[in-house]
Amino acid sequence: MRRRIIIIVSILVVIICAGVAINKGYNSMLDKAAENGKFQINNINIYKDTPAWELAIAVKSEKTSTIKK
To answer: Which of 8, 17, 33, 57 has a CA between 20 and 30 Å from the CA of residue 1?
Structure first.
């Protein structure tokens, strides 16, 4: 029984460490992209059902007349 607990705890530790390593790598990648000016957000759905929705659609479509309004 004790051996099973040790194995389960060891597996959980490995999973947690892998998750932390993946997260740090992803954050590092985002930081490098932002520093180089290559960071872009193409998903405008975060603005859906907000007052900024029409503006987000205009910016994505590059409609300068609507953006000026």
So the answer is: 17
Give backbone dihedrals phi and psi of 10, rounded to 5 degrees, phi first. -65, -45
Q: CB of 32 within 8 A of CB of 24? A: no
Cα separation, 60 vs 37, in Å, equals 18
Q: What's at 48, amino acid-wise?
A: K
Amino acid letter for position 38: K
- pLDDT above 90 covers a percentage of the chain that reads 19
- Dist CA 46 CA 50 (whole Å): 9
Q: Which residue has the higher pLDDT, 22 or 14?
A: 14
Q: How far is CA 61 from CA 2, 21, 64, 66, in A?
A: 62, 38, 9, 10
51 phi, psi to nearest 5 deg: -60, -20
Q: Does residue 42 sit in helix, strand or coil?
A: coil
